[in-house]
Design a protein that fits this description.
about 250 residues, mainly alpha, two-stranded antiparallel sheet, elongated, disordered C terminus, Tetraspanin/Peripherin, transmembrane, Tetraspanin_EC2_sf, membrane
């Protein structure tokens, strides 16, 4: 049982660290989301709170088991049950609202692409994060490069420039951000089809990453749920045993 309590403290530390990473990360797709969507920031804060609570519960559970304090074990069981129910509710919300979340995510990225401006220092971190995503996944736009034609700067330049982070040419990786000049624009104008960029949209790349790692994600979630269930069963069993002890057999002083 003590090993289980120790596992909960480790689990809490991992959840806490994951929440802090979401808030601190500036160079990945998570950064694009957390800078654009208040809900992800709220979720990260909730993760930090849950992580801290899980670590505290592990300590209280161990203290209650060592000293056979029923109220601490009962509090441990109750908090553990509430966290498990919250996790199940969150999973159900994500599952049934996945299309809504997908549309919201699409709107965030499309707005980012339309307003992309390398000279805007206020949005530099957000734009650098999106450049990093396009470079690492080897993609362009959310559903494809055509979305970049709606960018205000590129429209004013007749699309004779293109986003460097979308490029499939190694020489453009040196720049890594901003816009690169098209070598041979036709009649001084061009379309996204003339750009030397990746054809795949980043949505397909993100979905493929999720599919490739779905087994790991489900495995981790299942493992956490099993540990929580074991903690609930053992804590309530210990709590009942403490309650059922016959104190009349204790020698009187």
């Amino acid at each position: 049982l003590y090993v289980l309590f120790l596992l909960f403290q480790i689990l809490g530390a991992v959840i806490l660290g994951f929440g802090i990473w979401i808030l601190a990360d500036k160079t990945s797709f998570i950064a694009v989301l957390q800078m654009s969507s208040p809900s992800l920031k709220t979720g990260a804060c909730i993760l930090i709170g849950v992580g801290a609570l899980t670590m505290l519960m592990g300590f209280l559970g161990c203290l209650g088991a060592v000293n056979e304090i029923r109220c601490l074990l009962g509090l441990y069981f109750t908090c553990l049950m509430l966290i498990l129910l919250a996790q199940i509710a969150a999973a159900l919300v994500i599952y049934f609202q996945k299309e809504t979340l997908k549309v919201e995510l699409s709107d965030i990225v499309v707005d980012l692409i339309e307003d992309y401006d390398p000279s805007d220092e206020d949005k530099r971190n957000l734009q650098d994060a999106w450049d990093y995503v396009q470079t690492q996944i080897a993609c362009c736009g959310w559903t494809g490069a055509k979305e970049w034609e709606n960018n205000e700067i590129l429209k004013n330049k007749s699309n004779t420039e293109y986003p460097c982070s979308c490029s499939n040419r190694s020489k453009d990786f040196v720049e890594g951000r901003g816009f690169c000049v098209l070598d041979d624009p036709v009649n001084g104008t061009a379309t996204y089809a003339d750009w030397p960029v990746h054809e795949q949209g980043c949505m397909d790349g993100v979905e493929q990453w999720l599919k490739d790692n779905l087994g790991i994600i489900l495995g981790v979630c299942t493992g956490v749920a099993v540990i929580e269930l074991l903690g609930m069963i053992l804590s309530i069993s210990l709590c009942k045993n403490i309650h059922s002890e016959d104190y009349t057999k204790v020698p009187k002083s």
